Structures are given as C-alpha cells and as structure tokens.
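Open question from group meeting: does this chain pack into something compact, or does most of it stay loose? Before anyone orders reagents, we agreed to write out a predicted structure and look at it together. Recording both the input and the output here so the notebook holds the full record.
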Amino acid sequence: MRRLSQVLKAGAPDERGVIAPLTALLMVALLGMSAFAVDTAMMYSEHAQLQNGADSAALAIAQACAHDPSSTDCTAANDAATALAGGNALDGVSHVPVASVNFGTGTVDVTTQARDTAGNNHFSLVFARALGIDTADIQASSEATFGGYSAADVVPLAISKCASDPGFGRGLMFFPWHGSGMANQPGWSCKTPSSSGSDVPGGFGWLDHSGPCTVSVTLAKPDVGSGTGNNFPAGCGTKFAGWRAALAAGKPVEVLVPIFDNATVHGSGPQFRIEAFAQISIRGWHFTGSGNTYYTPEASALSSSLGLTESDTGLFGEFIRKVTLADAAALGGPTSYGALGVQLSK
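Structure tokens returned:
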C-alpha cells in the first residue's frame, strides 16, 4: 500500500483542509435541525399551557354563569379568563383575545394566545432566530356548555311537581309518595289533589328500569312508564346501600331525580311525563317493601316535626343550587329545579 506522502510526491492534488469547509456546511444544517427541534418542543409546551388555560377559563366562567349570571366572573368574562389563563402559564402571562358568554346557547368561548413578558402577543423563539424566524403566533381555543340537563341516566324515581319547592327556599324537605297537603301551600303550581290522595295522578312512583336501578330519561321524549305497586325494587338495594354507607360516613349523596308534571294511567300502570330534573342532596328515605328505610339525624328530626307515620313513604332531601359535572348526562334542558351542569363541549 502506498503512503499518502508517496501519492503527493507522485503529483496527486493536495486534499488537506477539505474537512473544514465541509464541517462548516454541516454545522449550518445541524444548527437548523437543533433550532427546529428545541423551538418546536417549546412551542408544543406553550400550546399545552394555553390549552389548559382556555379549558380552565371556559369551565370556570361557565360555572359562574350557571350559578349566578350577575357574578363578576360572568359579566367580566375577559378579565376572569385572563387571570385563569395566566395562572396556567409557566411564566404567568397569557393573552385572551376572545372570552364571550352566549346565554342563548348556554356556551362560553375562550381563546388564549401566547404573550411574552414584555407584553407582545407572540411567542419568542430562540434558536430559530439564526434562520431569521424570531416569533410564532400560538393560540388555543375552548368551549364550555352550561345549563340544565336534557337527558340523563338517573335513579328510577319520579317526584311530583307539586311536591317540589318552586322557590328553593324550604331547605330540607320530605318528598312524599302521597302528599296532597303540599299542593295547597303558596307557590305550588298544582292546586287540586287527585282523588287518590296524590298531588298528580300517579303520585310519586318507581319508573321502569333500563338498567340496575337506573333509567334513561330524555326530555325530548318525556313519557316514562311505571309498574304497578309501591314495593321497593329489588334491583335498587345495592345503590341505596351505597347511599347509606356514604351518608353514615358523613359524605354527601347528590343525585339527579326526574320531576313529572302529569301522569296518565294505562292498563300496565302510570305513564309519567317528565318535565325536568332536580338535583337533590339525599338525607334519608322510607319505602315499603324490603324494609328499605334510612334516616340521618336531620331526616329523623324532620319526620318527627311533620308527624309522619309508617305509611308516609318517600325521600328526604334538599334542593341544591350548585354546579356539578354529572356522568351520563347531556345539557340543554331547563333549570327549573336547580339541576345545573357544566361540561367542555369543544
């Protein structure tokens, strides 16, 4: 094998120094790739922060509007969104070009945009500056829906409209199976009890099940069937046992319950027309069949003060006006009985 020195001596061209220009050319490409990789990762991180800010702002404003439309977070949505979006940014700064509330559709729209600490509405790049790209416009959007429930998988109980408190001012209540006295109090929309002693024909009843102690109710198709008889459904034992355990441990039990405004009797049993859902914090219950009864101290005291007897069956609970996220529920229905929900829709 001939040595390189021998080749050079033989008149071959001198190739020394070629590596330097090649390295310089490759460095440009390598720097460009580094700029792309590092700045792209930073942009992804910035977008994630902006998306978190948009989501949290939309949900928080929707909760405020559902709970109290006159609240500051609802009427000054942009200010609330700016504060929440900034709280979700690592540098504590975000711009909110859009934060709007539409009560007609029950929606809140929030758009967040990158902003640097100098107040410029863009994201400042680092390595890409070597390629002449100084900034990037990064935005994220979110929409939250708020309002009453239009459909839900609920406990198969139906409460008479006349046994409900239209003013939400009575606190803990007893929701009776037969409660004709409720209808005669001021503020109730049903005034004439039926001959059977119920406020509305059909009274307070168990609905036909579509699952284990569950029924799917859609207000667009409000008629729900019910079997005859007042016995406690065997399939509800597990669910009520869970309620009892939670209440005994001092935990809240909050459920959606259908409220009906009318009922018709067919050969197979009553057909209830559901008008809305009530959100109720359960305190106890007393039903016939299977001896399914449980009283918290509050429910026991109320039962005594009302002079209830063994034949008075129903639920003890309190209407609650608070925003919840309910599983297996769709929004867009009425808020007549305080059942309010909020969920991200986009």
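Observations to bring back to the group:
The chain has two domains: 18-137, 150-344.
Residues 150-344 form one domain.
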